[in-house]
Fold this sequence. Notes:
The protein is an alpha/beta fold. It has 2 domains: 9-21 and 91-228, 3-Layer(aba) Sandwich (Rossmann fold), CATH 3.40.50; 22-87, DNA polymerase, domain 1, CATH 1.10.150.240. It is 48% helix and 10% strand. The chain has 10 helices and 6 strands, in the order βαααααβαβαβαβαβα. It has a 6-stranded parallel beta sheet with strand order 3-2-1-4-5-6. Strand 2, helix 6 (122-130) and strand 3 (137-138) form a beta-alpha-beta unit. Helix 3 (53-64) crosses helix 4 (71-87). It is globular. The two termini are 17 Å apart. The model has no long low-confidence stretch (mean pLDDT 93).
Amino acid sequence: MTIRSTIKAVFFDMDGVLYDSMPNHEYTWIHSLKEYGIDFPAEEAYMHEGRTGFSTIRIAFEKYLNRTATLEEQEAVYALKTKLMGERPTAPILPMMQELIAELRKKGLQVFVVTGSKQPLLVEKLHAHFSMEAANIVSGADVKNGKPDPEPYLIAWERSGLPKDQCMVVENAPMGVESAKAAGLFTLAVNTGKLADQVLLNAGADHLFQDTKALYKVIITQLNHQKNA
């Protein structure tokens, strides 16, 4: 795999890329939807990762109950999911991701987070752990159409002020990969969840890593090599 020497900005997904938070999302989706008679498979939490919460709820109701979720039901399910999420253990930061972002900044690259999350403490958490400013965070509150629509990554690209060939995405979910590729961006996938590698490759990932340690090693090694070439 070769990272373009022109890369000047990296757009990171949050859940499953910066934090090992997908087990919490899996649990809360399963148990919040169960209240409405939906037996939501664990793998679907990973397949739908990156969508807005209400979109996932609507899809689940249509698929498993053969009906449209009312707005009240969508709000109730999401409120329950949020409550359950607050009761879950704090998700740890994935290995080498703080170090990777710090290294990228030292090398003069812009760093953005692109997430479907709308959690109230999102900005504070990302600032505390990754020194991320609000202007460099694209959340579910910033978009009309969440992943797999290209809008989230197009917003990050526009904020960067760079040509697309100078931007790169790091994702862990098929919906996110599809969003990034639809936006016309080079995309790395890191498989930190339960899905088969081929699912991410079929979504269009340009290269796949098995964990964040390997991701760090390859990106930093290549950037250092390019600098010294």
